[in-house]
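re: ur question from earlier - yeah i can do the single chain one, its not a big deal. heres the input i used so u can compare w yours
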Amino acid sequence: MHESVNVNGTELQPCSTDPMTGWFRDGCCNTDASDRGSHVVCCIVTDDFLQFARSKGNDLITPAPQFNFPGLKAGDRWCVCAQTWLDAANEGVAWPVSLDCTHEEALAVIPIDLLEAHGE
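and the output i got, formated as tokens:
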């Protein structure tokens, strides 16, 4: 298996292990063909983000123990779907992004300059 690459062209760094994030729940925003949502953008969660996601039918606040999901709060880091992040950016509620932890696959959906404008 080759190492994953971030949007900066370097080795993908872990996004969060507390809470444990990622499509594979490995702490990184890795992806594969079965990840239809492309959970590749490492975000620093804000209350605005949580309310935006909930308004789109994705409740990330309520814990779901059956899926080993603790529920998120402002300040957590989480791998989110590239399209969801772009939709939020287009509505003026983009949340901060960790570029070193965001998978290069995000660039298939989001222009690099937009990510960099919200990068930390």
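The radius of gyration is 13 Å. not sure if urs matches, ping me
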